[in-house]
Amino acid sequence: MNSSELINDVAIVTGSGVNTGSVIARRLAAAGAAVVVNYRRAEEGANDTVEKIRSAGGRAIAVRADVTIQDEVNSMVAQAIETFGLPSILINNANVRSFRSILEITAEEWRQTLGPTLDGTFFSVQACVPHMRNRGRGTIVNIGGGSGHSGRPKRCHVAAAKAGLAGMTGSLASELAPDNITVNCIVPGKIDIRPPVTNRSKLVSHTPLGRAGEMDEIAALVEFLCTSKCRYMTGQMLHVNGGAYVTIA
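Below the sequence we write its predicted structure tokens.
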């Protein structure tokens, strides 16, 4: 294991069976946290993530829950408490993404895209905050998306979800600050996942650093936000995109 910085923490990472969510779960476990690896469909990936954590000496369980269903979220949090204790870290990573022109987006796809990001975050925060208050502290990290901050064609539904998440982040940060609960949002740019997405070389060509980001670079920032070294930052959008999107205020 890498450290024991989070040895007293219990983390719930939604949508963490595969890709960046899995890497985040493993990174937090390596820092000492007990981790709930949440999944909806990626059971094999979730079990593999848990096995890797346990093989490295960490603590983890895989819990299936559709974060768009409040009862399932409440059950997931109850399992976390029964196994490890009160949660102190919540990573809202679950999401659905697709490319569709505005006239091709069906009502069902619209709801399926907004549901995991907005409903899932809302239900998860409601379920975890009372326990964070009981602990006297907490960390919430939302995983956003660049389309929520800049115009992107064929991403109206995704942009709406991620822009809504940004708004939730700011509001929650202000409301929960008196409870010593920080709320921040990481906004990844082009991240190198496998198998690589279509037109990766074209996308990376627009990144000043000339490469895609690594999943562990996102996970490392998540870890930092969860540590005692980062208790004064809250309500922020942290853009991790190799300079592809720069804000100056």
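Helices lie at 19-30, 43-55, 70-83, 107-135, 156-176, 200-204, 215-226.
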